[in-house]
Amino acid sequence: MRIAVLCHVRQPIAQPFAGGMESQCWQLAAGLQARGHDVVLFASGDSDPRFALDAVNPEAYERSFPGAEHRGVAALIAHLDKGYAAACDRIAAGGFDVVHNNSLHRFPLEPARTAMVPTVTSLHVPPYDALRWFVQASVGPTHRLTATSARQLAAWWPEGPPREASVLHNGIDPDAWPFVAQGDGSAVWCGRMTPDKAPHLAVQAARIAGVPLTLFGPIENRDYWDAAVVPLLDGDARYGGHLGGAALAIELGRASVFVFTPCWDEPFGLVAVEAMACGLPVAAFDSGAVREIIGETGAFAPAGDVAALARAIVAALDAPRAPQRERVEAAFTRDRWLDRCEALYRAALSGAAASTTGAAA
């Protein structure tokens, strides 16, 4: 198939990844390409040049409009509208069989566009007002929609999802996250340094538990980082930087427990799955889809309860490592995920064929 992978353009689709959406778009393009599909990545122009790249905008908008996300900045909205309108027009004229839409923008959802090029839209976030209506109005025979967890599918469609919407769990390449049979007694945390990811609470809980902790990830919110996290760093809590996948896998594998502290309606939790592949038991806030993804081998605490999270860290230290890897291999591999993507593409194409036949009749 000739496939357009349309991305969110806040950050580049390149290593080291800013977050799960960027990682999954990269893995999607790479995986489909490896399976013999003709893939064009519609992303910011500073994304990975190994792909056939069609730039939605010249650079990721976090560089052009730093800190403007979710603030209703008119110039950013106009910038994105212009870029996505042109990209959607190029997709329509580009001879694509299907588009996999990860953009979180309203234009690719328009029924006239999904009727022209069959579309699979993946919703990587909880529902929000600026997109909710467009998503619900976009359902049609040539459009398939996915959420990353059953929790998020129910959040987008509280009255029950249409038949065109389903759960598509994210997937990773287990070989890229090697299993390590034993850790060194330390804890690790990965993610964007923002209040909703709450690394400061991870540091506090690890300190109560008496377990050294290393933080990894991009410093997205500098004010929060300087005010809430830096004062907590010392010999037992350190920042290890923002690492690419291979280096991060090594750091994860040597630890004994992964600390996961979402303070929002977590839609999936890709970093936890990567850690589980390395064998790490997870101590986590029970928020959003966390329990659904991690499973009963995890140790959970009520969201925001630092003392309970400290107890969960201690409990996770004694958990066996093999079941974590087994869960990833059973449910969250890249091959399983790509198989589902290809099935969704075929379903969207079948919807287009049926619509054409019906119109002809």
Keywords:
disordered C terminus, 13 strands, globular, single chain, 6-stranded parallel β-sheet, 2 domains, 361 residues, Rossmann fold, 7-stranded parallel β-sheet, alpha/beta
Secondary-structure blueprint of this entry?
Elements: E1 2-7, H1 20-34, E2 38-43, E3 52-55, H2 61-64, H3 74-92, E4 98-102, H4 111-116, E5 119-123, H5 129-137, E6 143-147, H6 150-156, E7 165-167, E8 187-190, H7 199-209, E9 213-216, H8 222-229, E10 237-239, H9 245-254, E11 257-260, H10 270-277, E12 282-285, H11 290-294, E13 299-301, H12 306-317, H13 322-331, H14 334-360
Parallel strand pairs: 1-2, 1-4, 2-3, 4-5, 5-6, 6-7, 8-9, 8-11, 9-10, 11-12, 12-13
Helix pairs in contact: 7-12, 10-13
